[in-house]
Amino acid sequence: MQIAILLFERVTVLDAIGPFEVLQHLPGAQVVFVGERAGTVRSETGSLGLTVDASLGEVTSPDVVLVPGGPGQSDHMADGPVHRWLRAVDQTSTWTTSVCTGSLILAAAGLLTGRRAATYWLAVDELAAFGAVPSRERFTFDGKYATAAGVSSGLDMALALAGRIAGERRAQGIQLGIEYDPHPPYDVGSPETAPADLVEELRGTSRFRR
């Protein structure tokens, strides 16, 4: 089972590495990090490098496709190599997935038209412009498409996906193995629970502010 995780410049690292940590433990999993060209891409702050193992043309029929988000997502909203690759591999993939603003890339490529999809809370209003139906759930399944909300929610989506692929027992074992038992020190992980002034502060600095 080949799992292709797309990488690009200014990617949010946890969007890719969180699901990777889960999905690599599936039976028969072969994870490949794919991008427009092999080599190193830098994280959104530029402080961390991630290695693209294979170019888009070298990965033609993955079973699972995962598209992370990050500021670099904005460079992949116009039709081009990434969109063409996504449309091609989606024809044969078992699962096509995203984390955070990665769903905007999928939607812009035409793969989420009429489908419910989740994304980062500050970007959720952007989905409708590309024909998707915005969901404010932490992760959403619509057919073979699984989309997660912001950053950390990729872990939740990946575990749910692992359960659908390999059964709940295996997914539970993965969760226990990585000791994923979150108890955050603050109850501000969503705009619904965060103080209104903090929500507005982040909204004011977001590239998605209106």
Write the layout of secondary structure elements.
Blueprint: E1 2-6, H1 13-23, E2 30-35, E3 39-42, E4 49-52, E5 54-55, E6 64-67, H2 81-90, E7 95-99, H3 102-108, E8 116-118, E9 133-135, E10 139-142, E11 145-148, H4 153-166, H5 168-177, H6 196-205
Helix pairs in contact: 1-4, 4-5
Q: Assign the CATH architecture.
A: 3-Layer(aba) Sandwich
What is the top-level CATH class? Answer: Alpha Beta
The number of E-state strands comes to: 11
Strand line-up across the major sheet = 5-2-1-6-7-11-10
Give the N-terminus to C-terminus distance in angstroms.
42 Å
Count of structural domains: 1
The global form is globular
Query: Which class do the helix and strand fractions yield?
Result: alpha/beta
Describe the largest sheet.
Answer: 7 strands, mixed
Q: In CATH, what is the homologous superfamily?
A: Class I glutamine amidotransferase (GATase) domain
- In the predicted model, the low-confidence regions spanning at least 5 consecutive residues are none
